[in-house]
Design goal:
It is built from 6 helices and no strands.
């Protein structure tokens, strides 16, 4: 604060603030803003470095969810994006994060395929169920038609039998009637002859 007073004491903008306490308060606020800005800039730079490092890992062939840092750092140790990271601990942490992302991605893909397979299996089961239902429906219809035809045939047979019985009964009745008539005619002749014989004897 004393250094600021000596350096800027003649500046009109400095003199515009009457009290030194107010000048010091404004100075402290400014310092806080500068520190905050520096911190934000460093964070943005760190994010960019991390992004570039992750891109390096993605572009490096041979890195998968089973990879080890001790093997990978030998492969990329001379890369500019590797060297831009401040320390080895940070590099290993970001590599570990990347491998975990690969494992999560693999798990999601596996779950997705399993879900698709289950949906496909259920769809096929429903389709087979509908086909069996249609088949049973068609089979039931055919069976009903067969039963109906069988009933019609039975009815026809029964009618034919009834007609046959009726014809036989009529034939029997007609024969019996004819036989009765013939028997009656024979009896009358006998009686007539008997009467003639009687008349002859009387004469």
């Amino acid at each position: 604060s004393s250094g600021i007073n000596a350096e800027n004491g003649k500046d009109e903008r400095f003199k515009a603030i009457d009290k030194s306490r107010d000048r010091e308060s404004l100075f402290n606020e400014y310092q806080m803003e500068v520190r905050k800005k520096d911190k934000e800039e460093k964070e943005e730079k760190r994010k960019l470095i991390k992004k570039d490092f992750k891109a390096l890992l993605r572009e490096t062939e041979g890195i998968d969810r089973h990879s080890y840092w001790s093997d990978i750092k030998k492969m990329i140790g001379e890369e500019e994006r590797y060297l831009a990271v401040e320390n080895s601990g940070q590099r290993e942490d970001w590599f570990t994060d990347y491998v975990l992302e690969l494992k999560d991605e693999h798990r999601r893909e596996k779950d997705k395929k399993r879900a698709e397979k289950e949906r496909s299996s259920r769809s096929r089961s429903k389709s087979r169920g509908r086909k069996r239902s249609k088949s049973r429906s068609r089979g039931g219809g055919k069976e009903k038609k067969r039963r109906d035809r069988s009933k019609e045939k039975k009815k026809k047979k029964d009618k034919d039998k009834d007609r046959s019985r009726s014809r036989d009964k009529k034939k029997r009745d007609r024969r019996e009637k004819e036989e009765g008539e013939m028997s009656g005619e024979g009896g009358d002749d006998g009686e007539i002859r008997s009467g003639s014989d009687r008349d002859g004897r009387e004469r």
